[in-house]
Every structure is written in structure tokens, then in C-alpha cells.
Specification:
The complex is a heterodimer. By secondary structure, chain A is α/β, with parallel strands linked by helices. Helices cover 27% and strands 31% of the residues of chain A. About 2% of the residues of chain A have low confidence. Chain B is globular and about 70 Å long. Chain B is an all-alpha fold. Classes of the chains: A alpha/beta, B mainly alpha. The structure holds FE2/S2 (inorganic) cluster. Chain A: It holds the Pfam family FAD_binding_6. Chain A: Its cofactor is [2Fe-2S] cluster; FAD.
């Protein structure tokens, strides 16, 4: 028979653990006190302090950050989620880490490189408001756009990096890692920017290509040379079909670059890419039709641009939660993943950053996907 | 109360009135920003400090005075959390901030009332059907008779006792509101229908009870009894305060009730108008408003439930101007005087209706 005393202690310990973990009690308050003393002490959020800000080009800056001691490190090519508060609104964006993993191992520092986007709230805020000494809330590193270990390929496929604009950031981190680990390895970088002034990391790239004997670097300027072509690719990298490709840049660029590479005989399984660049809102018209996808149920339905998300969900055979159906009670809140909606009460476009929307007053403008309802 | 006042404004006037209120709402929404974020964070900070200090004082007090101060601080923290923070966050007033901690659909407050159930009974039923008899179950909380439209029964003679009990156990009353005991009694619904709710409620209540009445006292070891009593008193204070504030919002003398048929096919203008007539404000200093979660601006709260409540004072000035313009009564007064009319109303409707005078005044010549 079990000892009743040990049973009781076990029970009390479970209770105590639950008590500790419960939102709004001990742990919340302890974390509150710690962050009141210094935000870096928070156990719940990952806070990073801005150590240095470097101007890369006229519209690109690198921010060197020191994450709190709880932050767990990264693999070259990964990104972090950066949270900023702009006029009371929390905005989250993913930015690739642009430094080598060594910098974090040795000095506990990381860097992100941010291009200021016309009308982009987060990037403008980081560029114009952030100063050395400020803190940011960041997420753990994630993403699987990382250097593949050459396990199966014999001899290992040489990496080919193709980047456009600020798509260079994760690739920069990868190249630096190669420089530290296998500086002799033969690698190529094809980098597209508008003009020489827009070349991010120019001097760093020049230095790298000098110190790495087998690093070939091909910058291209679309203003004078035009967009990426198969001929150009073939010229820069004649053995493209034997390479492992790492591709990063704006959506349109990646689409044509990957098509060219496949044409030139690159195997699809050796192509790794990271989508990048900001979402440009399409010119919308109220009454714009589109397709609505409900991701958690896999259902979808066509919208004529007149019905609300709630009505559409119901016509799609779903059973969403609702109350007043008139925008008062917020019972119908759902999470939008991509796309735009119009507020039926005000006729205004709901900003892209607002991910929680009221289904009963939101009318989709074009295609939309709803994460959970 | 007469319930047909809804139709004294012309349709045209009502719609203009509604449009002007919509415009006011838009203006404030466009202006939301750092000021509002700072306000709620500042209140959260104060609430946390006072809860930490309150619990510490209750635990470690060496004399009754510091213990009483601890109870006071813990009561204040609980009131702030329930009123200015919890209630308002759950209305979606801060959803625009995109802050997961302040999201209306996930916030869980410090009372035995489960927030999911609250969002359903309060945000939806009460705010959509405000003061519509038979639809707004917050009207008298199914235990009080506050209008002659509800038939008098002898048990109403003792409704003051009910009122006292409801206030003392207010969090339990609110928590169990969704149980709809009156429908269970009449057989309209069965216990089985209510099983999911009962499960949710038990879970939340157990969490609250174990926190305030088991674990915190246990942490104090031999001083457990004073912690237990201190926590109990803090909950009691919060109950009495919140019930008083809420009663002043809808059950004052001039707050009106409506019949379901009056509100059919209601337009936005009519909805605003009904919210206005069914609610009442009270005046006071800044902290009285904050401690009441700005429900002292019940009228504005009912018209704009999802706008950050600390905006109500500035909106109220404009609402009052509109009321003057359209000659609509705006029900306000000091806290004391409004509360007196609540008590008077409870007392009046404990008694059967007086034989009423003929409805139409007799026409007599000069
Ligand atoms: S159902 Fe009430 S706000 Fe949408």
C-alpha cells in the first residue's frame, strides 16, 4: 500500500506547481517585479538591448542587439520576430539575423539588418526612433532556411547564393559561418540590387571575397543591367546544375530566379528559399471578389465582396461563434492570417497588422485566409 | 416606468442623432494611441503594486492596523482588476493594441465568474438587449422586481434581503448567472443543457477558491487564519463595491425599460437611444471613475462599449450637448443621490402596484 503521507505531499506539490504556473498569480507578479527592476530580467519575454546602430546604405541599418541571457542562440539563416510598439499598437515583424553565429557564441551579440520600406510602420520606426540603449522584445530564432549539411551528396554540392535587395541578410550570416568553418570551400554569390548605392554590406562582401580564396561574388544592378536572366546566371555560374541553391529576395524576384534555375537543370530538392520583402497592399475596390480560406477547417468559399466573414463562414458550413452580429460584443473575433478586410460599420480598410478581426463586421476585399474562427 | 418613450423622437431625428454619435465614435477611434496604451498599463502597474503590497501586508502584518491596510490594498487591487482592467479589456477596448495580454477573447479575470461565460451573458446579452424585459437577464438579475411590467408576487416583499445577499455574494451571483435558474425551474431547459457551463464554472471557481482560501493561507503557515480572513474581506469589499456601481448604472429611478416588440427592427439610431435611456451616470472625482471602471459613465459605456473607458469623460461632454440639442433626458447625479434612488426603486417595487390613475388625462374645460 502507498504511504498516505507521500500521497498527500505529492498532491500538495502538484497543487503548488499549478498555483505557481497559473496566470495572474505568483509567477506573473514575480516577473512583473523583475521587469520593473530591469526589463532584461523578465523570465517571460525575451528582451534585447540595442548596443550599436550601423548605417549600411542610405535606407538600410544594422542593429546590433544583446539578448537577455535566456535567449537560446541561432543557426545562420534563421530569423527572429521583433516586436515594437508604435503609438500604442504592438507590431511584429520577422527579420533575418545578419551576423555569424560566432558573434553570439563569443560576445552574446546578434544583429539584424533592416531596410526602411516606404510606408512600412515597423521598419520606419526602427530607423527613426530606435536609439542605442533602447530595448526590444524579440522571439526565439526560427526558420529552416539554413545551410544544409552535405551528408548524402558525394562530393558535397557547392553552395550558390542568389539574393536581391535586403534578401542578402540571412545569406550574409551563412557566408560568414562558412568563412569561419570551411574558408576554403568554393561558394558563389549572385546579388541583385537597383544600383551601386543600394548594395548592402558592400565593404564586408569585398573583404570576404578577398579573404576566402574560392568565393566568387557577382553584384548586378537592375537599373543598368535589367532583371535576372538565364543567360546571366549561366555566365556567373556555369555549373549551376550541380549546386545547392539558397535563394532570398522579394516574391517576384524569387519566382523568376527559381524558374530560371530549374530551366538550367537545378534539381528542385537542392533549392532552398526564404520569402522576403513586405506585402504591398493591392489596390482594392469595395465589392472586390475573392476566395476565403478557413485554414483550421480546410474549407473555402468564394466571396462577392459584399458578405461578412461571419456570413461566409456560415455559408461554408462552419459554426463560428457570434453574439450580437453588429459589432458590439466582440464574440466573433477571429484571427486573420493574410488578406484585407473592410469594416462594414465605418467603410474603412482594416490595417494589415490587425490580425484579430470581428467577423461580423469584416468584409473581405479580395482573397483572404482566416487562421482560426 | 413608461416604456413607450422610444417613439417620441421622429425617425428622421433618431437617425441624425445616431449619425452624430457614430461620428463621435469614429473621431475617438481615429485618435486611439499611446495615451490609451499608457493609461491601461499605468493602471495595471498600480493594481499589481497594490496587490503585492496588500498580500504582503496581510501575510506579515504585526498589528491589526497594518493588516487592515493590507486588506484595503488587496480590495483596491481586486476592484481595479475587475473594473478598470478586466471588464474593459474583455469588452475589446484594447484589442487594437494587438497585445496578447490585453486581448478580449483570452483575458481571464480575478473573480469566480468564468470570462467565457461573462462574455456571453454580459457583452452579448446585456449589451445588445440592454433593459429589454425578458431578454436582458441582467435586469434585476432575475431576483429583483424593479418595474411594474413584472407581475408582483408576495416574495417581492422581502426583496431587500435578496438585494443584500446578492451584493454580498455578487461574484458568485454573476458567476452563476448563465445557469439561468429561472428557466431550470420552469423546465424550459434541463440541467443537462447546462452541463458544459457548470463544468467551466466549477473549474474557475475552484481555481479562485484554492488561490484565496487555501494556497495563500497555507503559504503563511501559522498565520493562515488572518490571511484567510483578510482575503475573504477583500473579496467581500470588492463584491459590495461592484454590485453598488452596477446597480447605479441601470436601476436608478429614471432608468427605463423596454418591451421586446418595441425593439424589433431597431436601427442604429434607435439602439443608441435605448442605450441612453436605459443607463444612468454618476459624477465624482477621477479616482471614483477609475475605481468604478468608468461605469460611472454607464451611458457612454453602453453607447461605446468597445472604446477605452477612460475616454468616456471627454465623450460625455459631447453626448450631453447632443442630448440637449435633441431634447433627450440625460440621467446623471452624484453617486450618493443616484444610489439613493436605486434603494428607493428596490423598495417601491417590493410592494404591489398602486391602483393606477386612468391612463389618459380627462379633458376638462377651463
Ligand atoms: S458578433 Fe458581436 S461583435 Fe461580432
Amino acid at each position: 500500500m502507498q504511504n498516505p503521507l507521500s500521497n498527500a505531499t505529492q498532491y500538495i506539490t502538484t497543487l503548488a506547481i499549478r498555483f505557481w504556473q497559473q496566470e495572474g498569480t505568483l509567477q506573473t507578479y514575480l516577473d512583473f517585479l523583475l521587469s520593473e527592476i530591469d526589463p532584461m530580467l523578465s523570465r517571460k519575454r525575451n528582451v534585447a538591448e540595442v548596443i550599436q546602430i550601423i548605417d549600411e546604405t542610405a535606407d538600410t541599418k544594422t542593429f546590433v542587439l544583446r539578448p537577455s541571457s535566456r535567449w537560446q542562440g541561432f543557426v545562420a539563416g534563421q530569423y527572429i520576430n521583433v516586436e515594437t510598439e508604435i503609438n500604442g499598437v504592438m507590431i511584429r515583424r520577422n527579420y533575418s539575423i545578419s551576423c555569424a553565429p560566432k558573434l553570439f557564441r563569443e560576445q552574446q551579440l546578434i544583429s539584424i539588418t533592416v531596410k526602411k520600406i516606404e510606408g512600412g510602420r515597423a521598419s520606419t520606426h526602427l530607423h527613426e526612433r530606435l536609439i542605442v540603449g533602447d530595448t526590444l522584445t524579440i522571439g526565439l530564432a526560427s526558420g529552416d532556411f539554413t545551410l544544409q549539411q552535405p551528408i548524402s551528396t558525394q562530393p558535397p554540392a557547392k553552395p550558390l547564393f542568389i539574393a536581391a535587395g535586403s534578401g542578402i541578410t540571412p545569406i550574409m550570416s551563412m557566408i560568414k559561418q562558412i568563412k569561419e568553418e570551411t574558408p576554403e570551400q568554393s561558394i558563389s554569390l549572385i546579388y541583385y540590387v537597383n544600383n551601386p548605392q543600394a548594395l548592402i554590406f558592400e565593404s564586408q562582401l569585398q573583404t570576404l571575397s578577398k579573404s576566402m580564396p574560392n568565393f566568387s561574388f557577382y553584384p548586378h544592378f537592375t537599373e543598368s543591367e535589367g532583371y535576372i536572366t538565364s543567360q546571366q546566371l549561366q555566365l556567373d555560374c556555369p555549373d549551376i546544375a550541380e549546386r545547392t541553391l539558397y535563394l532570398c529576395g522579394p516574391q517576384g524576384f524569387m519566382k523568376s530566379a527559381s524558374a530560371h534555375c530549374l530551366d538550367l537543370g537545378l534539381a528542385p530538392e537542392r533549392m532552398h528559399q526564404e520569402s522576403f520583402g513586405s506585402y504591398v497592399p493591392a489596390n482594392f475596390q469595395p465589392g472586390t471578389a475573392g476566395q476565403i480560406r478557413f485554414l483550421n477547417s480546410g474549407k473555402y468559399i468564394e466571396s462577392n465582396g459584399k458578405k461578412t466573414v461571419l456570413e461566409l463562414a456560415e455559408s461554408a458550413g462552419l459554426n463560428p461563434k457570434y453574439g450580437c452580429r453588429s459589432g458590439i460584443c466582440h464574440e466573433c473575433k477571429c484571427t486573420k492570417s493574410t488578406g484585407q478586410v473592410l469594416n462594414r460599420l465605418t467603410g474603412e480598410l482594416i490595417p494589415d497588422d490587425q490580425t484579430h478581426i470581428q467577423a461580423c463586421i469584416s468584409i473581405p476585399v479580395g482573397d483572404l485566409s482566416i487562421e482560426s474562427l | 416606468m413608461k416604456t413607450n418613450i422610444l417613439h417620441t423622437l421622429s425617425h428622421q431625428e433618431l437617425e441624425c442623432f445616431g449619425d452624430e454619435l457614430d461620428k463621435l465614435r469614429q473621431e475617438v477611434i481615429a485618435d486611439l494611441g499611446k495615451r490609451d496604451a499608457d493609461h491601461i498599463r499605468n493602471i495595471i502597474q498600480k493594481q499589481r503594486y497594490s496587490e503585492i503590497a496588500g498580500r504582503a501586508l496581510i501575510h506579515f502584518s504585526l498589528n491589526p492596523i497594518s493588516w487592515a491596510a493590507g486588506v484595503g490594498l488587496l480590495s483596491t487591487a481586486k476592484i481595479l482588476e475587475n473594473m478598470e482592467i478586466g471588464h474593459n479589456v474583455m469588452h475589446g477596448q484594447y484589442d487594437w493594441m494587438n497585445d496578447p495580454q490585453l486581448n478580449s477573447q483570452t483575458y481571464e479575470w480575478d473573480t469566480v465568474c468564468d470570462s467565457e461565460s461573462w462574455r456571453n451573458t454580459h457583452n452579448f446579452e446585456h449589451h445588445t438587449y440592454t433593459n429589454i424585459l425578458g431578454k436582458d437577464r441582467d435586469y434585476g438579475y432575475a431576483v429583483l422586481r424593479l418595474t411594474d411590467d413584472e407581475p408582483w408576487k408576495p416574495r417581492h416583499l422581502f426583496q431587500f434581503i435578496n438585494y443584500g445577499l446578492l451584493s454580498i455574494f455578487f461574484q458568485w451571483g454573476v458567476g452563476l448567472h448563465e445557469l439561468e435558474t429561472e428557466k431550470l425551474r420552469s423546465g424550459e431547459i434541463t440541467w443537462k443543457d447546462k452541463l458544459p457551463f457548470i463544468k467551466r464554472f466549477t473549474k474557475k471557481a475552484a481555481k479562485q477558491v484554492s488561490k484565496d482560501y487555501i494556497l495563500f493561507p497555507l503559504l503563511a503557515g501559522p498565520a493562515a487564519p488572518k490571511v484567510l480572513i483578510g482575503n475573504m474581506l477583500a473579496n467581500l469589499n470588492r463584491n459590495l463595491w461592484t454590485s453598488t456601481i452596477i446597480f447605479c448604472g441601470h436601476f436608478t429611478e429614471k432608468a427605463q425599460t423596454f418591451r421586446e416588440d418595441e425593439c424589433e427592427n431597431e436601427t442604429r439610431g434607435m439602439w443608441y437611444y435605448r442605450q441612453l435611456l436605459g443607463s444612468s451616470n454618476f459624477t465624482g472625482g477621477k479616482w471614483l471613475h477609475i475605481m468604478s471602471g468608468h461605469l460611472s459613465y454607464q451611458i457612454e459605456h453602453h453607447m461605446f462599449p468597445d472604446i477605452p473607458a477612460h475616454r468616456y469623460p471627454e465623450m460625455a461632454t459631447k453626448v450631453q450637448q447632443l442630448c440637449e440639442k435633441y431634447d433627450i433626458p440625460y440621467n446623471t447625479g452624484s453617486f450618493g443621490s443616484q444610489f439613493k434612488t436605486v434603494l428607493a426603486r428596490i423598495a417601491r417595487y417590493s410592494l404591489p402596484p398602486k391602483k393606477s390613475a386612468p391612463l389618459s388625462p380627462s379633458v376638462s374645460g377651463p
